[in-house]
Design a protein that fits this description.
Order of helices and strands: HHHHHHHHHHHHHHHH
Strand content: under 5%
Helix content: over 70%
Radius of gyration: 20 Å
Oligomer: single chain
């Protein structure tokens, strides 16, 4: 496969996954912002969201104050923000158009229809009218895109590069979510004796789980009250949790093996080593050595892995 074709397929799915993850993050923050809380706490939540996406400097260039409406507009429909939902869906569609001949009709029509529909919804004010409904629509279109891809594409290199993009992006976004959300409530990490704080903890951790469609999974796996260390274990180490770091790296390693070439041994070694650390990791050890340090290092290694994948298979980028 031509490296440019592989590059378009890889980034088409990365952008689609990024749009979905942005919708999930905004939705959970919007829902928690409706809970009783101080203005400072609410502002800290929106600032944390910008930090997750590394958008704080870009936001502050345009706005003096961090407010819910401005943050949501910036992350949903600002076309000058390359990580906004509208920008991601536009980039996914452009990458799909560039390799139209490689995609099935169903995959192309799904990407194209998503872009046309989101433009219409933004123009008609559907987002402002009901943000939660809009976020659900973005998630649904991402689910549809993945389903159509797996259901209609030939199981060849094109599909493997698409899935590589999806799961590399998912690992990155889940790590960012866990890092910033745990960092935000570090002082309340093990809960308190105060009933009100326990109630707040429950809604906070429930919201984090819901943002990765993990609330029902948590109940099924642990059958226990929601505890922060269990949430961390579920989202980092559980291989059977679809959006966990472990599950994402399993997919990255498997798809790398299917497209391997003579120069990709080092990339496979890095991916395999990262996956092995998750496979044999222990949440108590991770928490003891520092969750923030662990996740910061994980994100660095995922970004390096992405650069190595680009060097070995795609349009080269500097390492």
């Amino acid at each position: 496969m031509l490296s440019r074709t592989a590059d378009h397929l890889f980034w088409m799915n990365r952008y689609t996954e990024r749009a979905e993850n942005t919708a999930r993050l905004l939705d959970v923050n919007y829902q928690t912002s409706l809970l009783p809380q101080s203005t400072a706490t609410a502002q800290a939540g929106w600032q944390g969201l910008l930090s997750i996406s590394e958008l704080l400097p870009a936001y502050k260039e345009k706005h003096d104050v961090i407010r819910a409406k401005e943050v949501m507009d910036f992350m949903v429909k600002d076309e000058r923000n390359p990580s906004s939902i509208v920008s991601c869906l536009s980039a996914a569609r452009e990458n799909a158009r560039a390799v139209r001949g490689t995609l099935t009709t169903e995959v192309w029509e799904t990407q194209n229809q998503t872009w046309l529909e989101v433009k219409r919804m933004i123009k008609q004010g559907d987002f402002e009218a009901d943000p939660t409904q809009f976020f659900e629509w973005v998630k649904f279109r991402s689910h549809l895109s993945r389903g159509v891809t797996v259901g209609t594409m030939l199981m060849d290199e094109a599909l493997h590069f698409m899935r590589l993009g999806t799961f590399l992006e998912r690992a990155d976004n889940t790590a960012r979510l866990v890092d910033v959300k745990f960092h935000a409530v570090e002082s309340d990490f093990y809960g308190t004796a105060n009933g009100k704080d326990q109630e707040y903890d429950f809604y906070h951790w429930s919201a984090i789980l819901r943002s990765v469609s993990g609330f029902e999974v948590y109940r099924k796996v642990y059958r226990d009250v929601i505890r922060p260390e269990r949430v961390a274990e579920l989202l980092i180490l559980r291989p059977d949790m679809p959006r966990s770091l472990h599950a994402s790296l399993n997919e990255v390693v498997n798809n790398l093996a299917l497209v391997a070439n003579d120069q990709s041994k080092e990339t496979q070694r890095r991916a395999g080593k990262l996956r092995a650390e998750l496979q044999y990791g222990c949440i108590d050890e991770i928490l003891a050595t520092g969750l923030h340090a662990y996740l910061t290092q994980f994100l660095d290694r995922v970004n390096e892995l992405g650069a190595h994948i680009s060097r070995d298979f795609l349009v080269p980028v500097p390492l």
